[in-house]
């Protein structure tokens, strides 16, 4: 998978996003597309919130109606499944909407472990109505084992890691890319999950590749883009202490050979999401684990933190206090990149990168 | 995959084992089958050693001729590919032997990432000659994400972990199973790789499952067998600091929720096999990493060590010294399970298990 490989995501398309029962808090793909996607979102499908507006739930994005079913969606080019349930299955209650989209000739894109392109009914309907099915979580052929070469690229590699799933790793990564570019730094984005791939239009779905190739799938993307940028921001996945997903995290950590880590956490998260009998691990212990585990493959350091403070709502003061407490725990700068901007941690994350960039340009 | 699911490995079959150019030191599947398999090995195919005998290379197994090509193999039921190259590809120089085996009506079994059952020529030949193709590295359908429940089973779970690949994790696991059974302990074996699966006739090839399901594939096997035994010995894979394969190791560590770890090492190994620019990590650091990484999911401890001393050849004294030095580094009992037997570490590995077994029986 290279940046040229395309998941039918040229910018400027009009899309509807399916997020039944989960918008916005359990629909991170939907929110990611609203906040960072290159497309115009014409509607969100959530039967539990039908009749409301996107801005009733998410303030800082373009508004759109929330509707009950696809029949109510205005004219559009594609339906995107914007939910990523644990296990990645397809909920059959979504079938009528996918069917209706295809019957209208709209493309359908999803990032599930269940592949639309292997669903007989959808394949037939897509053919009949000249629509495209796009499974962004289906890895391309030819991914193999890592060679331990990601550190050979020119770019500095920055990886987001987490205390758990859904702590804001993708968001933090994209905010860092944007903030770095605003400073004139040539920053690349390495998408590793379905939402990142939908936004960027390319990428390897690391959690779906063969386990033996986990690190290799990350390394491949870094080798292909790492000499074209001064810094690469790699979207992390899961957590190194997650009962189910730690393998993915570990493969990304070693495959990326990251130079710097940004640890993402959500305020007051005290148990692993969906695995409530497992408490989260304290921050200093996690820092030691990430750094200690990475070191034999490539020395790295947690240089900054990103704290998701959405549960503090409008209370910016409480959010600021939480960020400061988190920075103390980390013994490193921290921010909430959505609330306060990624710029607050950019100095330390980019330390030395801009200068290196100028030096290269001056050669 | 359950112990009932069968990879066509009922005992007593006559098999030929393909190990071209790699027998015995780089043919761990071949040697594993010779040492622990339920089958009669009638020949080993290795064109570089043709004309020699198995016992010229491996002393403590049943003898058989080493031949150049399948045409020279005596009557048999199956050809087994007994090499596991980095990357798991199929070397086309093996094609004539696989072809010849199928033409003789022999089944062919392999544990490669390349699937025989997706090779058009082999599929046609197998059909024509009523032979079976068996890819033991092809995971069964229905494997999913871990639920963090492996620790709920009655059995104590013992996992072998390593300082690198090919340090003797499978061998140590099988020697421990045998030694435990000799003491009358009800011990189960959890196969996680191609050789283990070929020997046991069941198992999940963990390095081949979808990355997200790595821990789940191990957990599945433990939940299915863990209440039928007093102790489960889980075959480990890779190493937690391996540049390519650490994801697999991490998934097994967390998915198995092991109660005890046995750290496997090869004497004088100072770089990662096949990744020579990466030095191995010192033993105390590795112990801390394995225990520290496991703890947030399930507390565990490295209770013993297994040292592969084959490079010391006939020098038993040097081997004994090396084992003692390794035990000092570990601060735990150690053995070379092949040279000195697994019994030397069994007390600490089984500590409390036999008593628990009796207690249960007495209820």
UniProtKB/TrEMBL annotation, chains A, B:
User: Per the UniProt entry, what species is this protein from, by scientific name?
Assistant: Halobium salinum
Q: Which domain of life is it from?
A: Archaea
Cite the InterPro entries for this sequence. Answer: DgcN-like (IPR011669), DgcN-like_C (IPR035086), DgcN-like_N (IPR035402), P-loop_NTPase (IPR027417)
Protein name per Swiss-Prot or TrEMBL: DUF1611 domain-containing protein
**Where would I find the D-glutamate N-acetyltransferase-like C-terminal domain in this sequence?**
145-346
Which lineage do the record's taxonomy fields give for this organism? Answer: Archaea, Methanobacteriati, Methanobacteriota, Stenosarchaea group, Halobacteria
SUPFAM superfamilies cross-referenced by the UniProt entry: P-loop containing nucleoside triphosphate hydrolases
All residue ranges annotated as the D-glutamate N-acetyltransferase-like N-terminal domain in the record: 48-139
């Amino acid at each position: 998978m290279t940046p040229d490989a395309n998941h039918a995501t040229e910018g400027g398309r009009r899309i509807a996003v399916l997020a039944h029962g989960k918008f916005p808090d359990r629909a991170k793909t939907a929110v990611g597309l609203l906040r960072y996607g290159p497309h115009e979102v014409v509607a969100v499908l959530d039967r539990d919130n039908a009749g409301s507006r996107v801005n009733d739930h998410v303030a800082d994005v373009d508004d759109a109606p929330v509707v009950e079913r696809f029949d109510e969606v205005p004219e559009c080019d594609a339906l995107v499944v914007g939910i990523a349930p644990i296990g990645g299955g397809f909920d059959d209650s979504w079938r009528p909407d996918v069917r209706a989209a295809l019957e209208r000739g709209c493309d359908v894109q999803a990032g599930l472990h269940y592949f639309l392109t292997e669903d007989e009914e959808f394949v037939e309907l897509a053919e009949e109505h000249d629509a495209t099915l796009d499974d962004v979580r289906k890895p391309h052929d030819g991914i193999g084992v890592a060679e331990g070469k990601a550190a050979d690229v020119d770019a500095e590699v920055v990886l987001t890691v987490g205390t758990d799933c859904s702590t804001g790793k993708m968001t933090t990564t994209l905010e860092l890319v944007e903030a770095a570019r605003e400073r004139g730094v040539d920053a690349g984005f390495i998408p590793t999950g379905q939402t990142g791939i939908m936004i960027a239009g390319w990428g390897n779905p690391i959690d779906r590749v063969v386990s033996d190739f986990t690190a290799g799938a990350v390394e491949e993307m870094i080798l292909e883009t790492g000499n074209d940028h001064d810094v690469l921001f790699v979207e992390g996945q899961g957590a190194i202490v997650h009962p189910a997903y730690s393998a993915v995290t570990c493969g990304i950590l070693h495959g990326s050979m990251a130079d710097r880590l940004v640890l993402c956490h959500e305020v007051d998260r005290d148990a692993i999401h969906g695995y409530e009998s497992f408490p989260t691990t304290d921050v200093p212990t996690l820092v030691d684990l990430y750094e200690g585990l990475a070191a034999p493959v490539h020395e790295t350091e947690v240089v900054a933190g990103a704290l998701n403070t959405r549960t503090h709502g409008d209370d910016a003061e409480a959010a600021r206090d939480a960020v400061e407490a988190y920075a103390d725990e980390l013994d490193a700068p921290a921010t909430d990149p959505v609330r306060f901007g990624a710029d607050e941690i950019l100095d330390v994350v980019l330390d030395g990168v801009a200068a290196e960039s100028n030096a290269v340009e001056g050669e």
